[in-house]
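Please go through the sequence line and token line underneath and see whether the fold suits the sequence. See right below:
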Amino acid sequence: MDNVFVVNAGSSTLKYQLINMENESVVASGNCERIGIAGGIITYKYGDGQKKVINIDLPTHKDALDHVVELLMNGETKVIESMDDIVAVGHRLALSLSMSNEITPEVMKDIESTRDMFPLHLPAMVTGVHACEQTFAGKVQVAVYDNSFHLTMPKKAYMYAIPYEYYEKYGMRRFGYHGTSHRYVSLRLAKLLGKKPEELKIVTCHLGNGSSICAIDGGKSVDTSMGYTALAGLMMGTRTGDIDPSLLQPIARKENLTLDEIHNIINKKSGMLGVSGVSSDDRDIQEAANSGNERAALALEMRNYQIQKFIGSYTAAMNGIDALIFTGGIGEHSADVRAGVCKNMDFFGIKLDEAKNAVCTGAETDLSAPDSRVKIWVIPTNEELMIARDAYDIYRSKHA
């Protein structure tokens, strides 16, 4: 049996899935929490949804992985016979100018070179890779990058209007993120519609605490809202999204803030939290708005308006739109957001079936009104499956 182990490592967490590549089913999944902190927790879910929680100290990421492997191979939690049943390990990583690739020492150097861009996230990702290299010694280790899907963007879309030398010297350009999610839902929609990806013009809306919009023309990303970092584009839970950069200097002067402090504000204290003053969680903001909180209502209106503008601009960029997809935690579960975004979009042929939208709870659903020229779908994202597919493809290329 060919299984791929998928890893998403955080500083004190490690999410995992074991996926059977013969039928792409999840054999086991879970999360290791409080790594390096007293009171570690391993959550282990069977493929049928049953859950087991183990309280055990997890000094390092390798200790966490070793315990997960023990669960996979022994006792009542056993789902595989031996390590031979795992053929590859897939890692979610942030950035590269390459498509998914096997992790070699040279590739690892390239990954490490992006540390300045991702000072909080990259060290944990790298730690996860090194831990897996020990626990899964001899297995093919594959990096799947969050931006790779966007490498098909034309230069006119990814360049910034800054001195060209900064692009040449430092590679400063739009990269985009959530690429694995945008790729999955666009491919899934093509299958649901019985079409080839090359036949479709799609706008995908990945909406969560971090959000991005993507224009996908003929199966390729041609533009996306996030930029050099994940700060750009839409206002998000705590991130500003696009703002006038000249705001930052007067704020710094008036508030006596350093550049690092400004960076912290625009990443962690702005967005939906900054405008609403309530929370970065959409559910809390929606509840406050329903209770008459004007700032909460304003935050929701601002974001919906921004999403509408991206849909409009991407429709223009592609010279048409066949489908609109909502995914991510908010996109999949918030009927209010979907209704707000699709309101007054008749010019584009976007008409939502309000009754279907009201009862949609995150399952794959066609929300298009009968007279909508554009298909409107909710498609739950599955980044882990895309990572597993890429890892398995690279494994098979080595063992054909």
The longest helix spans residues 294-318.
